[in-house]
Amino acid sequence: MAQDTFDNTDLKDYKASGVLEGKVAIVTGASSGIGQAVAIAYAKEGAKVVIGYLDDDEGADKTVQLVRHYGSEAKALSGDLSKSDNCGKLVNFALDEFGQIDILVNNAGYQYPQTSPLDITDEQMLKTFEIKSFAMFYLTRAALPHLKKGARIINTASINAYRGHSDLIDYSGANGAMVSMTRALARRLVREEIAVNGIAPGPIWTPLIPKTFGDLNPNVADDFGEDVPAGRAGQPYELAKAFVFLADPQNSYMTGQVLHINGGDYMST
């Protein structure tokens, strides 16, 4: 099944109820894909959004414009969040712009497919973990002194943390680390009434897929996701409501959990 273009305008039909009015959210990896969809949904729910991104200035600007289009405020800051200093800069940027942080969405990530474990270099292994799991911890650590009772931390992991992927061995491991740290942080922060949860998407059609799998599979746009029970890949906007649910102040008794949104591919026990 050929994929649609990369477009989160389907969120124009998202019916908001204002559950995030007065909140400020940091969303990383928000210049496209899942992060962009989350930023738009949060804006429609009333939150101000700080967008963290690496180098896609055009995509980040588009996200800012979409947030503003839906009636909220947004600021964007570029930086490599695999470096702890940049995580501190993003937190300080959010505080300078909006004065508070209520929701932290650790969504940034990258993958380097390899058909053989022998092709995974030391440098690739380290970079994959730095981008995915180290950055999540660094940003959480930087934000924690500024999070108050009722704050929410949401980590975007992957189905590959649970079922693995033969061409994404290091990426699967990095997401597994993210899941474990989500659970550990939840245990540590629950008495402070800060909830830590995650989402493990299945095959979601984002710019990352053709960018990273295009060389291995020239037909990736036609067959990506066709092997799951739903028979297709998901679109980023189909995850947005789950991120809102986890950020909702009324969702106060759920922590240490990971939601599986994957078209029926992996069914958690």
UniProtKB/TrEMBL annotation:
GO BP terms: bile acid metabolic process
Which InterPro entries does the protein's record reference? NAD(P)-bd_dom_sf, SDR_fam
Keywords tagged on the record: Oxidoreductase
GO MF, one annotated term: oxidoreductase activity, acting on CH-OH group of donors
One Pfam annotation reads adh_short_C2
Q: Which family does it belong to?
A: Belongs to the short-chain dehydrogenases/reductases (SDR) family.
Q: What is this protein called?
A: SDR family oxidoreductase
| Species of provenance | Planococcus salinus
